[in-house]
Design goal:
single chain; alpha/beta; 5-stranded mixed sheet; 5 strands; zinc; APOBEC/CMP_deaminase_Zn-bd; CMP_dCMP_dom
Length: about 150
């Protein structure tokens, strides 16, 4: 299974999200054999739904289609370290592994922390550590490529 290939696909999904007028965040769900099962885009701007994060959108679809046991064999690739809401959704879905691109700290270093309404800088590992089920986390990964998604907005 190629982490680079799947992360670059998540980056492409984020670009597609942005081209539709949304924020540049994307993710993909991959099974244990490395097959891409589905993609998730951010839809906050076009849907008017504050919960329209890429990971939540993907997990809503995935949990209707796949069992918890099956999701426990899957990996989610996200362009950015998930926020606490998305981290919790990953935990509750049963997804086994998370690979993320840019860390929360690096994201806020790049984008700024001036608006407290949009800053929630809890590392996903810290939140996962509070849960009873272990979720494997890899990241940051290809963070410089992910940073290019956001640097155009600074």
């Amino acid at each position: 299974m190629s982490n680079e290939k799947h992360m670059r696909l998540a980056i492409a999904v984020a670009r597609r999200s942005e081209s539709k007028g949304n924020l540049p965040f994307g993710c993909v769900l991959v099974d244990g054999e490395g097959k891409v099962l589905m993609k998730g885009e951010n839809t906050i701007m076009t849907s008017g739904d504050a919960l329209g994060h890429a990971e939540v959108n993907l997990i809503r679809k995935a949990s209707k289609k796949f069992s918890y046991e099956f999701l426990n064999t899957c990996t989610i690739y996200t362009t950015d370290e998930p926020c606490p809401m998305c981290t919790s959704a990953i935990f509750w879905s049963g997804i086994k592994k998370l690979v993320f691109g840019m860390s929360k700290a690096s994201f806020y270093d790049l984008m700024g922390r001036s608006n407290p309404n949009y800053v929630f800088e809890m590392p996903c590992r810290e939140l996962f550590d509070k849960g009873g089920r272990k979720v494997e986390v890899v990241g940051p990964f290809l963070d410089e490529e992910v940073a290019l998604l956001h640097s155009a907005r600074t």
